[in-house]
């Protein structure tokens, strides 16, 4: 129908695969419940917590199905992994409550959970072995490269459609591009684009495992694949240039020095003496020390993923909600998310962990607030803390916000200066994209 073609023109042509004939725009598409159910079937995970350990033991036997070399696996095309999933907020009002926030729009944290599940299913679709109902691969989220939004408000009473496919493949990792659209006046219009990186591991989730190579079929697909390769190199460069590994640039040192001079308190007794220890806050500013919020989460079995670890989407939702609260309390008005950037999943989080989240305003400019959320787990038995994730969120506030200022001398204040510069780097990268 003309209506279906109209939907498809809003998507890149590589994704324009015809929907099942005879269906209207979204009828017949799987929903998020089916996505998660399918993931459990692929892995053989149980919905019952007590049976889960047994199910994981049974996965060990799948070791024999792993490829010894990537060359032994059949190549796949981008359209082989292409999926469309419906979130029927308009046609099934009973699911709205879970997605609704107090401002009568959709909770973005829930969207992060859905993107995470969909990204994993897309990768399992790419690596599917025809005769095997169960996959020997453990596919987990390694990185959220970026999520850029082109709509401030996501409506709670209109159907949402997710589309996505594998866009680049290494030896053991896959990049997934996903798009989210929302139905308005009979047409699906874009809301966000997301790029995730997934890694494949053996059935016990211990060692890397090979995945099917990807063969681009057109100049457009060649371009998408090349972009995936560039994204990988860009991530390596960004990581190498991290402030934790490399000194700030001359320009960045000047920024910190200017802040330092700006915050010196020159009102001292005696002529010409200035104490480096005494600081004053410039007008319409807030110390970074006073621009943070903390949260604690007990990781219950309900939040587990198909591998008996805490679901990455749940961690993202909790981090986002703390980030939003930090931006809200800092700016004093409602913030809107415009970008999620560079989320590294460094360590899995075990069920039963105490998850400590720390939200910090790192950088501000006009209405923009750059937030860093640090996530760590605390093991009550060993009394050890381990960083699991760092999250970067860019918000735009309804009103102009005060400038956040690091105290720039020695010790922990030096660390705050590095956070400030790191926040500025992330903000600049996001603004270039937008």
TrEMBL record:
Membrane listed as a keyword: no
CDD domains, per the entry: BFIT_BACH (cd03442)
A GO cellular component entry from the record: mitochondrion
Molecular-function GO terms, alphabetical: carboxylic ester hydrolase activity; fatty acyl-CoA hydrolase activity
Record's keyword terms, sorted: Hydrolase, Mitochondrion, Repeat, Serine esterase, Transit peptide
Subcellular location: Mitochondrion
Highest taxon of source: Eukaryota
Domain HotDog ACOT-type: 81-204, 289-401
Listed GO biological process terms: acyl-CoA metabolic process
Record-linked PANTHER family: ACYL-COA THIOESTERASE (PTHR12655), ACYL-COENZYME A THIOESTERASE 9, MITOCHONDRIAL (PTHR12655:SF0)
Family: Belongs to the acyl coenzyme A hydrolase family.
Protein's recorded name: ACOT9 thioesterase
Species annotation: Dasyornis broadbenti (rufous bristle-bird)
